[in-house]
Amino acid sequence: MVTTTVTVKFHNPSLARRKEWQRAAQLYRDTKQFCIDGWENDDFDKSVTTASIDNGLYSAIQNQAIREAKADHQEDGAVSYRQSQPFALNNQNWEIDTTENGSVVVGFPCISGWWYTPVEVYDDVDDAVRRVLNGEADKTRLQVYRRGDDWFCTFSVECDTNPDGETAIGVDVGHNNLLAAHAEDTDESMLVSGREAKYVRRRFRSLRESLQEAGALRALNRADDKESRRIRDLNHTASRRLIDWIEQFENPVLRLEDLEGIRDGSDWRGVHSWHFHQLQDFIVYKAERAGIRVEKVDPEDTSQRCSVCGEYGTRDGDHFSCPSCGRERHSDLNGAENIAQREGEPCTA
User: Fold this and answer.
1) Which run of H or E residues covers position 344?
2) Residue 334 belongs to what H/E stretch?
3) For residue 116, which of 108, 128, 125, 127 has the smallest C-alpha distance?
């Protein structure tokens, strides 16, 4: 089973629609809190139904709130929901369709009735959305939520097999780990530590500062050359290990972040001299020689979004956690999973 998380923004919903969605989010929170409080106070048992809930939400949304509250209560016991909750519907109670002019619309019940609203489908999820529309894949639970002034919805698309028979390999290039790779729809991942490379960079930075103070220009040039050779050797070794690992998979397609412009706006001083592009060039070159197709994908939010539900999570060093679905993962491998899920532009034949 191949699962792709789809997050899309609603296109210019009316004020009335946005107000109703905001009200639904508040009622969703109240419904979940009503259930939690009732179970804690022994007012009713876990078989509570929508007949016990007196608010304007459609019963499909109330039922989903009950299911989520039950899961939260089983895991954490007493819970206090302090903020509006993204309201949700199971896969049978929402629709995705196209209009006569080709716009994609998402429809679901709320309070006053069903709303069908256009959504903005970006390139990285277009293929998954088209598969649902063509009946080639199944959709899962829909979540509707607000971020700032905009409204979004997120759901997953499930296919029995990859129609192209490919294994997508997402590769995240960084400084804590030179490489983090994940093979989609498998439990296979790999990490190549960046510890030695960081040591080399620190050592030669300190050496350059000393040589600059002493005015030893020739020695400074030799130090630069020596550092470049060390980093080049590390990049060659890391890229070779990656390609050897990828070759175990049937019909792999390797996906990398498009790092053009990564230096722009960065506040990390090491990024100006770090050999991200050199490492990517080595990966692409070795992959091409091995007959592995490579794609470059949009890097936006790959390190910030959860690779399971698509929500923004929290990154603390090597640890990524998602407050929405509870997923916990190595942060670089979470990024690699996001990269693997995105459709990219080919950069090799």
Assistant:
1) none
2) helix 331-341
3) 108
Instruction: Give the model confidence (pLDDT) of 176-223 as tens digits.
Output: 888 999 998 888 999 998 888 877 777 766 766 676 666 766 666 666
Task: Give the start-end residues of each E strand in the chain.
Answer: 2-10, 87-89, 95-98, 104-109, 114-120, 138-139, 142-147, 150-159, 167-173, 177-183, 189-193, 252-257, 293-297, 314-316, 319-321, 328-330, 345-346
Residue 349's contacts (CB-CB under 8 Å, 6 or more residues apart) are 288, 293
| Structure-token pair, residue 172 | 């995240």
**Predicted TM-score (pTM) of this structure:** 0.54
For the beta sheet containing 189-193, the strands, ordered from the edge strand earlier in sequence to the opposite edge, are 189-193, 177-183, 167-173, 252-257, 293-297, 345-346
Residue 272 sits at φ, ψ, to 5 deg, of -75, -20
Strand ranges across the sheet with 314-316? 314-316, 319-321, 328-330
Q: Quote the mean pLDDT of the chain.
A: 85
Q: CATH assignment of 167-346, given 3.20.20, 3.30.420, 3.40.50, 3.10.450? A: 3.30.420
Domain boundaries defined on the chain: 2-159, 167-346
Residue among 256, 250, 142 nearest 186 (CA): 250
